[in-house]
Amino acid sequence: MWHCFFEQSGTFKRSFIRNGEQAEDYDILNDFGQTENVIDLFRDIEIEYSEGGSELFKRIKPGDGIFAFFPCTEFEAQKNMLVLGNSHSQKEWSLEKKLEYDLEWMDKMSRNYTVLTHLVLICIRRNIKLIVENPKGSEQILYSWWAARPAVIDYDRSAHGEFFKKPTMFFFFCFEPTFAMSCKTYQKERMTVTDVRAKNGKTIKVNKSLISQTYADYFVDTFIFGTK
User: Fold this and answer.
1) Per the confidence metrics, is the pTM higher than 0.70?
2) d(Cα 152, Cα 168) in Å, to the nearest integer?
3) What structural domains and CATH numbers belong to the chain?
């Protein structure tokens, strides 16, 4: 079974199901009406790492897979300009305010870094397959300041049916990616209103982070269920 962490659109879930696998989404929100498990993943990961026996990880068995679309905001390369106080929006800020911002960012980044590393350690120790997705950038925290290295880097996702180019790295733990040979060509998809609205009609703020169904199918077929 595959457990899609920090995911509420159902996109990768559908790709797994298409390949005959069970799959469910896990997130603290359910804007798309696709999240079977509405939970605080940070909380459950920390409970499992510190104490063991969290309700979340009781459901996840050795040999299962987790695909974690881990929040990337605090890891992104563009944060560097904000931390240095060089953003246009900060031109009127005093040094005091810039330093206070740096402390706040460091707290958030450190928490995210810790929780993600704890998730990886849990999966290694329990033999749970894990994929971690995050944007690729030369100054991105996980690329520059993490011992784990990405197994797959896609520099142009639009070549495989994605809405945007979005250079992305994928870390694999407890298993290796497959690589399927395919002659299929993928057309870049265009995001429509229905792609960025929830069932209740409100606009989804995370529309730029959405992944197209075509790209999800490509990734799962190529790197998870492809040929060694």
Assistant:
1) yes
2) 8
3) 2-224 (3.40.50)
